[in-house]
Design brief:
single chain; 451 residues; alpha/beta; FAD/NAD(P)-binding domain; Polyamine Oxidase, Chain A, domain 2
Length: 451
């Protein structure tokens, strides 16, 4: 089959690679000049280091993602923990969730015993683990309601669950779906200790996406950048092709004055892997999912990159309790560079209140967190800072949103949907995107066999 995949994020890359590996003729169409979609990066001109549009973490439970990266020989870009370890700092000092190599969930229980927590919170954490293991929340239950029902007090939420849930779901427990959190908690922490390990990147996510793009091209697939798909068209219930505007694909073409070319691309199948808020503009109007997808709300992420003249943070990742900036990552160390200047990345998930703030105020919040928790910061100098806002970083995953997320099928033969916002059962994650891309590839193949 001739297949076009619209969108060069991880969902589109996964779909294109799956179809190319099955010997279809695949072209990947990306409207920008870079791959990765909502999980990409760029090279900072001043420092030469990769800057992500929000630091994205993976875990060992990302089976589809890790399989895809192994196929593309991209495992050298991964830094995988031996065992789950997460450091936290607050006004009482540092404490570490350090899980030993025991079978799940004993590894997590032992780690919680080592973490500095009130005994009442440890008991509540055990109660939540038992609730997840032996029960399930209702489909309309928010995470805050589920926490109340399972006996999680204010301290348990502040010290444990809220920072974890907001990072996973990019939404507050008051808004988020308890069912989605339940699935993630069960898969990550209760099935295998290896599933809970954190997986960092040794480079920006754009580097990883480009590696996947090269793998696709090496197998005979095509990647067309700056190809803006304007409309996917269908006739008699089957996709027929798409209309696109091919802009100058690279800087050399831009300098040469290459003009935008309007094009009709006939294909046998299309995987549409664009963000949900773009979908109504490109899909045929009679696709049933269009109306409800357009109502899916968004949740923002703010990230702050900072370079210091000395090493202040002494771990690759630390949770900052009771702070507007929730997590700090030592990107320089992850990228294999020790010492000064120290490149730090701060993340604010579900950043509804932070997004409207001026850059200077956000940088000041990150600086104050360092001064509050890391004594070496009092003598440090901020050499450079950047602020990035992603207003539509992810969908807002409340119980009502779960009912709006469509599956891969559209009702039009040969046209499938992919994206972390589709009905994967997961929150907006790289794993959800990859899983959706592979499912969409299966759908268009099945449609092709029926044609």
């Amino acid at each position: 089959m001739r297949v076009a995949v619209v969108g060069g994020g991880f969902a589109g890359l996964a779909a294109a690679i799956a179809l190319q590996e099955r010997r279809h003729e695949v072209v990947l169409l990306e409207r920008r000049g870079v791959l990765g979609g909502r999980a990409t990066s760029y090279r900072d001109a001043a420092t030469g280091e990769d800057v992500d549009n929000g630091t994205h973490l993976m875990i060992g439970a990302y089976a589809d993602t890790l399989d895809l990266l192994a196929r593309a020989s991209a495992e050298d870009l991964l830094h995988v923990q031996e065992n789950l370890r997460i450091a936290y700092v607050d006004d009482s000092g540092r404490t570490v969730l350090d899980c030993p190599p025991l079978p799940a969930p004993l590894h997590l229980l032992a780690g919680l015993l080592r973490l500095r927590l009130p005994w009442a919170v440890r008991g509540q954490a055990l109660r939540l683990g038992l609730a997840v293991r032996f029960g399930a929340p209702g489909p309309d239950e928010t995470l805050a309601e589920y926490f109340r029902r399972t006996g999680q007090g204010n301290d348990a939420r502040r010290l444990l669950w809220d920072p974890l849930a907001i990072a996973i779901l990019n939404d507050t427990p008051e808004n988020a779906s308890a069912a989605v959190f339940h699935r993630v908690y069960r898969d990550a922490f209760l099935r295998s200790r290896r599933h809970s390990r954190l997986v960092f990147l040794r480079a920006g996510f754009g580097t990883l996406a480009e590696r996947l793009g090269r793998y696709l091209e090496a197998r005979g697939g095509r990647v067309r950048r700056r190809a803006l798909v304007e409309r996917i068209e269908a006739a008699e219930g089957r996709v027929t092709g798409l209309r696109l505007a091919q802009r100058a694909p690279d800087r050399a073409a831009i300098r040469a004055g290459t003009r935008t070319q309007e094009e009709w691309l006939p294909v046998d199948a299309v995987v549409c892997a664009v963000p949900w808020h773009v979908l109504p503009a490109v899909l045929p109007a009679d696709v049933p999912a269009v109306a409800r997808v357009a109502t899916i709300p968004a949740s923002p992420i703010v990230s702050i990159e900072m370079w210091l003249d000395r090493v202040v943070v002494d771990d690759v990742m630390i949770g900052l309790r009771d702070s507007e900036v929730e997590w700090v990552f030592d990107k320089g160390r992850l990228y294999g560079r020790a010492g000064a200047p120290q490149h730090l990345a701060f993340i604010v998930s579900a950043a509804y209140r932070s997004t409207p703030k001026p850059n200077a105020e956000l940088v000041a919040a990150a600086t104050q967190a360092l001064l509050r928790y890391f004594p070496p910061m009092k003598d440090a100098v901020v050499l450079r800072s950047l602020v990035m806002r992603e207003p539509e970083a992810t969908f807002a995953g409340g119980p009502a949103t779960e009912k709006l997320r469509p599956g891969p099928r559209t009702g039009i033969a040969g046209l499938a949907l992919a994206g972390d916002w589709t009905d994967t059962g997961l929150p907006a994650t790289i794993e959800g995107a990859v899983r959706s891309g592979r499912l969409a590839a299966q759908v268009v193949e099945e449609d092709g066999r029926k044609a």
